[in-house]
Amino acid sequence: MIALRVTTVLYLLLSLWGCTGSESEYENTRIPDAALPTQEQCDRYAEFPFDLESSALVVPYPNNIFTELNSASSTGVNLVVDKEFPLFNVYFGLLSYWLKSFETLEGFGLYSDLFIPLPDVDLTLNTEQFTDSGSGVFLMVIDPDHRFFGEIAPVYASLGKNYLRLTPKVPLLENTDYALVVTNDWQKQIGLCLEASPSMRRLINGESSISMLAQHEGLLVYLEQNNIERESLLSLSRFTTMPIFSDMEQAIDILDNLNNTAPAILTDWEFEPSESPLTESFVHAKLETPMFSDLWGIWRNNAGKTLTVERSESVDVLFSLPNREILEHEQPYPLMLYVHGTSKSRHDVKEVSDWFAKAGIATIGMDSLCHGDRANFIGNESLCYYNFLNPLSWRDNGRETVVGLLWLLKAIENMSDVDVIPEGGDGIPDFDVNQIYVMGVSLGAIQSGVLAGLVSNIDGYVFNVAGAKFTDIAFDHSVVRSILGFAGGIDSIVSDADLTHLVYLAGMVFQSTLDASDPGVFLYNARRLRGKTYNVLQQGAAFDNQVSGLSGASFARAGGWPQLSPYVWEADIPIVEAPHWGSGFVQYDTADHDMIWRDDDLAFDLQSQLHYFLSSLRESGEGEIVITH
Question: Is the model's pLDDT at 12 over the cut of 80?
Answer without folding.
Answer: no
